[in-house]
Amino acid sequence: MGQRYFLRALFFLGIVPGLAVSASAQKKGPGMTVVHVNVNMVQLDVAVTNKKGKYLTGLGPEDFAIYEDGIREKVAAFGEENGAPRSVRYSGPGGKVPRLGKYVIDSSPEDGMISPSAPGASVFILFDTSNYMFRGFALARDAIAEFVRSLEHSDRVAFYSYSRNFFRACPLIDEHAPVLRAVRSTVAGDDAALYNALLWTLKDADKFSGRRVIVVFSNGPDDASMVSPEDVRELAQSEGIPIYMISTREAERDPLSTAVFRRISTSTGGKAYFAGHWQDQEKAFASIRADLAHLYTLSYYPAPNPNRGWRKITVKLTGKKLQKYHIRTRTGYRPRATRDKAETFPAQENTGPLPSPSGNQ
């Protein structure tokens, strides 16, 4: 239970930003508070592929249907490949988006609601330097360096490493040379605290707008974290940050880690890869690079919804010709609750001291 109290405390203290805007809290009695939940624009990174994994390009906002808890949502902003998302104007009959080639995408915000993001993606690389990586450490480091070199100039990159502790080797930067130096300077450590490190990486990634992804090279399992993988997975879904997991074949010997890696990746819109040798590692990074270059960005302002808990997101393609294609994106989110400054916490919720940003306990 301690690890869940830890994550809950991060939410209450505002350490983990969410999708909610400021809201007022209303006292209902001694020690109790009713929290009102609001949500900002929800952003989805969507991959569309055929059965062989080939990407489908050239789609427009009218080709997608978004549902939140079964409620049809209006696309507010749209972007394709590595371009910046722009607001969508509904100028067709009945306020609908016209068919492909006739819809209008504005390059400037409407009514101050949409702020176009910069082109490219913010890529946060998290490297396992624990003793589980001892054998393949140098090869994994080379594969990461090659991945950084292959990214677009418009992509921003951060490089973190972890063992028991979490180390920000290079903060998010639009120059790739400092990231490569940070990759080359990493050294092997001790026990692995993957989910702690993922939590702090999500915290950093949420400070930035636009497309954000986390790429993890981990040989698993986790034997030192305070937080559970399910808590981290749900947070990544709620913040709209896909997680790509790359591991070696050795990790598959631990069925629990394998299942967790796949679940985290799939539910956030990312992928999981298990590489048998260094060539497979390079292929995995190349696949992620291709994914970043072919994602659609769909954003919407949620319609009124009484659900204050987990909200399920479903994205479909419209038209019979598109039904044969596969969609990959996050499967839902939880609106973040905000508390009034006067709110008090029950004694049993006391979590004790939180870990420092470096990950030290």
Enter the CATH topology name: Rossmann fold
Identify the strand order in the major beta sheet: 8-7-6-15-3-17
Classify the beta-strand content into a percent band. Answer: 25-35%
What would you report as the Rg, rounded to the nearest angstrom?
21 Å
Report the average pLDDT across residues. 79
The helical percent reads 10-25%
Shape: globular
Q: What profile does the largest beta sheet have?
A: 6 strands, antiparallel
Helix-strand topology string: HEEEEEEEEEHEEHHEHEHEHEEEE
Number of domains: 1
Q: Can you identify the CATH superfamily?
A: von Willebrand factor, type A domain
Total strands: the figure is 18
- Gross CATH architecture: 3-Layer(aba) Sandwich
What is the C-level CATH assignment? Alpha Beta
Unreliable parts: 11-37, 99-116, 339-361
Summing up helix and strand content along with how strands pair, one would put the structural category as: alpha+beta
For the record, give the distance between the C-alpha atoms at the N and C termini, rounded to a whole number.
Answer: 17 Å
Name a few traits of the molecule.
361 residues, globular, alpha+beta, six-stranded antiparallel beta sheet, six-stranded mixed beta sheet, disordered C terminus
